[in-house]
Batch of 2 targets.
Target 1
Amino acid sequence: MTLYIVRRLLWAVLMLLAVSALTFVIFYTLPSADPAALRAGRQATPELIAQIRHSLGLDRPVYDQFFIYMKNLVLHFNLGYSYQNNISVRAEIASRLPATLSLTAGAVFVWMLIGIPVGVLSAIKPRSLLDRVAMGASLVGISAPVYWLGLVALFLFASDIGRIRLFGGAGSYVSITHDPRAWFSSLILPWFVLAASFAAFYARMVRGNLLEVMGEDYIRTARAKGVSERRVIVRHGLRAALTPVVTIIGLDIGILLGGAVLTETVFNIPGIGRFAYDSIVNSDLPAIQGTVLFGAVFIVVANLIVDILYAFLDPRVRY
Amino acid sequence: MTNTIRRTAPRMTAGLASVALAGIAVLGLGSGAAGAASHAAKRGGTITVLSAGDVDHIDPGEAYYSFTYEITYATQRTLLAYKPGSVNAVPDLAASMPKVSPDGRVLTVHIRKGVRFSPPVNRAVTSADVKYAIERGFDTSVANGYVGAYFGDLVGAPTSPTHRVPNISGIETPNATTIVFRLRHPSGVFVGALGMPITAPVPASYARPFDAETVSTYGLHQVATGPYMIKNNASGSINGIGYQPNKLIELVRNPNWNAKTSWRPANADEILFKEGFQDPTVMTRQILSGSADVNGDTPPPPAELRSLLSNSADKKQLVFTPTGGSRYIALNTRKAPFNKLAVREAVAYVLDRNAMRLTRGGPIDGRIATHFIDPSFKDKGFDQAGGLAFNPFPSANFNGNVAKAKQLMKKAGYKSGLYTGPQVTMVADNTPPGSNTAEVVAADMAKIGFKVKTISVTHTTMYTRFCNVPKSEPNICPNVGWLPDFHEPQTVLDVTFNGKNITSSNNSNWPLLNNPSINRAMDRAERIVNPNARYAAWGRIDQMVTRTAVAIPWLWEQYPTLFSSRVTPSTELWNGGSPDVTFMAVK
Amino acid sequence: MALLEIQDLRVSFQTRDGVVHAVDGVSLAVDRGRTLGLVGESGSGKSVTALTVMGLTKHPNASIDGKILFDGGDLLQISPAELRRIRGKRVAMIFQDPLSSLHPLHKIGWQIEEAINAHEDVSGQVARRRALEALKEVGIPSASDRLDSYPHELSGGMRQRVMIAIALVLDPEILIADEPTTALDVTVQAQILDLIRVLQDERGTGVVLITHDLGVVAETADEVAVMYAGRIAERGPLESVLEAPEHPYTWGLLQSLPRLDAPRTERLHPISGQPPSLIRVPSGCAFHPRCPYAFGICPQVVPPLLVSQPGHEVACHLPVPTRRGIGREVASKEVSVG
């Protein structure tokens, strides 16, 4: 197992390298704004732009820039400075991480709390009214665009502009250390909006998994042993049905930690996702690189953890 | 960046209230009214401004964007500045208006006594600080965007950007309170340029270490001279404190500001600029509900405006301000077929300006433009350009005149009246309303046989990679426009249509117009010191440029500002309707 | 009085394609210490019968009639709670594929202990000890290590032993073994069957051994019942049925068995035709479309199960002497004594 982990970590490093390189390539090949021109502003002379290009290191060949970037990253853990406002990318990501963490953790909690029981109940009573309503609602949850859902949530429940003034509106996020109550209130709507599509997806997945598992032979054996139906569903059915769900949760968490862009945008939560979006709009390569790498790290780590976890959950899988 | 024109500091005439735009309610703020009313207003409280994006640069020496100016002019004292209802600059840091020599080449300014920098610098402001502020604009580490255009004619000013802050001999400081500017040529507009942020004093010894870096970090450590300052720590850094990029800018009172030296009331104790509000409808409703006070960079969307206007209580909180600039369609004159005048005139006739204006909301958005100097300039060029009557490409209701367009195409050699050449390319915004405007343009051009291929990219990509780069410029740039830097018609015509200002990158003369007689007229007009003569000259130039049809103006835009009911409104006519936080008060 | 008596059991299922008559009037009996071999092709209804005894076929679409008498009560009438107390404790069942029938994610010991804990309130220690005992009794080597093993770590034969351990840990009175050896190697088959017989002798358990393999039945059963299309074709004491089988289906089964001592070139004799659809069961005698001896009355009248010899009942329209004659001939060719 240790050898397996070591091998995976080495592959992870290689993959992060590839992701960085790919980001560079994409940035330079696809049409995006010229950072030097943006920084120089209107009416700036070509000489000025050339100077800025030089000072930002943009006139060096791409592989040279890449090498310098990687050197800074690996040796000094320096993610560079934003072209836009000269802020340290690492510091900016660090300052935004708590917001993204808050959003992700809460959303995961909500969607597990809703999605899994709904999926289980639907599987226990397939084709019942409960099942049909739940699966119908989940279809809406999956199909509804997050941004739209966010706006609807704000127009219905935001404490400033909603019909029923309940929870914190857009831009009301504060850090938990600053004001726990306000922090919580500002995140309720984003949690539910972000969780909606995931809860729906997980409900369907759990329902499908559990239905399939409950048709397995070992369920029949458990019943034949005289085990109570509740125990059969939980200790036999769910135990098998939820194992693949664990891996998917891990992956989803990994992806979300890279930033839930749409949710952060509509609710104006200053997280990493929003930072990534703003960087792309501003053609701010160091910031783009920083957020991409950050997201990639989370996904790679999540993948690894999930695979190791799976080995613990399913004894048939061993490394 | 929600305004498709990069907004810089536009200035409006004081006679706004007399500009009757059908069905639009305007809060009449005369030039003096705002000042008098707010001196009697309550003190204290916090004002909250909402915006979608961030400032372009927090360093006052780099700022070149109308939203940024809301902060810059609240924290910095430029030589001249503007009262909310006025487009005429008055002394702020300066003790009085500059004295101009008879030949127009020497300007003398005295600065007020008793103006001090905020902590941690604390000392009194001297003329050397103003000199340094202008000089650092030429350094690549600061890279000011307009200093070359307006201050480049100073004696001793560098002709290309420098690697360290240059010493410009043409800026003399005979004593601590006097500055003498020497220009190589007489200029009519230099006085107007003294109202730009680059003239706000910067303490040299404090700033030099920051300016010595490749990209200056003075902005993150800036000091203030205005009534407010960006909140900083004891060593002077605002990073993460008063300035959290894309999140928040927090202004607090400048303890060293002496109210007796300033005409700004500065009623509120604190001003919060909350950023990142992407959805304009949500932002509008938040202002209406009172959880925020005014929009900083995003206008309320047309749907919300219409519902606001239908409610008499809400109407009072809404102010419409002419931006002073225009939106236009630029045709690339270096490539066929738009190198032919008749073809360009055909396009000018065929475009349905009404439909184009509808993509931005319709009449609420402003008047349909017929030339480039906008009505708010009044007798400073607008009247001289023929006013509203000057309309060289008329059509009924501005809906476009397809028959006349076809006639002109025939004159250009297309026998059927329809274009028969290869397809033409257009680079447009990929989000509404710019994308919608571009679609209308393409559809209209199809009426005279043009097949238009549209490349949709982000706003900044459109400018920096395509339209601003002559080599990569497409045939049509439909989403361009220009705002005046200050209230002089030169600022909407020179950079944009003078052949000498065509650059290989970051070019703003999108049609690539290089007409020798127009160029000559502009060069002459730049040197006219006498205002009436100057405005007459630029009025004629406006007509000349319009007739070339290299760019087809279609909108003299007006900008809506929405205030919550808990504050007294105050808008900067000189800055396109941005709120003036130094005059606003919490009720 | 038999330990377990099934009387005229009828089980049918409502499906999209129609009503499936899985069990159509089956009566069986099992005694203490005796083994009933239940033989038939797949789809003959033998598994459904067994599952119905366990109460595992209850479903909104299922219709169950008849009586299943066990220890003075009718299993089809008692409450679900009472049935659950019997299931696993007094009537136990083992299944065909031990790999899929054991939970892949729980340890062996856990799965045995669960069977105990479902019916008795004992401490963890006691349960574990009893699980260990059970493993030893079914002949699993290094039993204490095996308690912490997972099913996939054991061989097929070991897994089936574990299943038997689970089934017998509470000492049930009836053990139903549904094709317990079908998924195993031939060599292991014999071991498993042996094991069942040893345990049966020790405890006096009544065993129902369900199989499609007459060879298996010949080794282990005391009584045989042959099922076809949800009905009993023939039943009786093993010797009687094997000495003189009296149903054409039974003859077919015997003749279709591949024999090691037959010449290599001799072809196999499968029963002609296809197993019948249980939705559209053939009229009259369900076997008549495939029966080489079918005549007039066969498609019209369902043959009743009538006694032919003491204890030997047959459902066939052929005259008894004819049947016995053919039967003996088939038996002498196909059944080796010894």
Note: The two ends of chain A are 5 Å apart (CA to CA).
Target 2
Amino acid sequence: MIVRISGEGQFELPDEDADRLNDLDNRAVAAVEEGDERTFQELFDEMLDLVTSDGSPLNNEELVESDVILPPRDISFAEAEGEFTGEGLIPD
Amino acid sequence: MPGLGGRMSTVIKAKISRILDRTEDPSETLDYGYQKQVELLQNVKKGIADVVTSKKRLQMQSSKLEQQVVKLDTQARQALSQGREDLARAALERKTVAQTELQSLDQQVTELEGQQEQLTENEKKLRAKIEAFRTKKEVIKAQYSAAEAQVKISEAAHGVGEEMADVGLAIQRAEDKTEQMKARAGAVEELEAAGTFEDITQLGPGQDDIDRELAQLGAGAQVDDELAKMKAELGSGGGESPALEEGKKEGSA
């Protein structure tokens, strides 16, 4: 499974991590919807940790699309709220 | 990928592909050849240059504020040695505000430095990917039938396309941040020019009047402390001068 951390690059992760990542992702979005900044930050940090510790960085020469793209590491809670609440897809 | 319907990644993926849609088909962009790729990389370079410009401006402001802090400190000492505690207090109050502002400026400079580094890294990655695409395309063409080659090349182009879109997102974010900083820096400069520097506490985003009053209380305590320290210093070194009656020196200010 290929995961991109936006602004940082792509990582190759074992497929078994997909479920864990997905679970964290859903809980992170739920935290955003509840306005719980601390929980969101914890879950998001956990996701980033999972990707960087379990995954290995992809070579710059590899030309593949990612299966999953995570937001930039420095995303603010306000930005996350704008992106992930309600219907999810907020037009730019 | 099965099971990955997580909304966060889906939303970001959608965002990336929207950016991608705004640009031309990546395989075409890359096929246009050198000219297009140079344009693309120049865009990233421009983004980096903008960040550097903002950083320089903030650094200049920061050194101006540093001078101001020194000047206000000197003024406070002078005022106190002339027995003008009111003036000394005013100078110290401004000094506290300037110091707070200085801290936030320094933090912003650090932030921009990080951003500059990241964009530089992004540019390097994108350059490597474009280069790899060029090589890979030739290899694919030589190895596969025309129809298969087209599929493979398009896949590879999408890999590069995602990178291009991600870099686009990074530049956009960097620009948004520098815009915010520019606006704030501009407001600080205007206030300085207008001589209402002490109102700077009102600039904080999302602050209400209670925040402001609390900040002023905090600043007040700091000013009291500094004033006491200065008095002690002057008292031990200077001898009789602190005994001057208040108000008598009004004319010399």
Note: The helical segments of chain B are 7-22, 26-31, 34-81, 85-143, 146-194, 209-238.
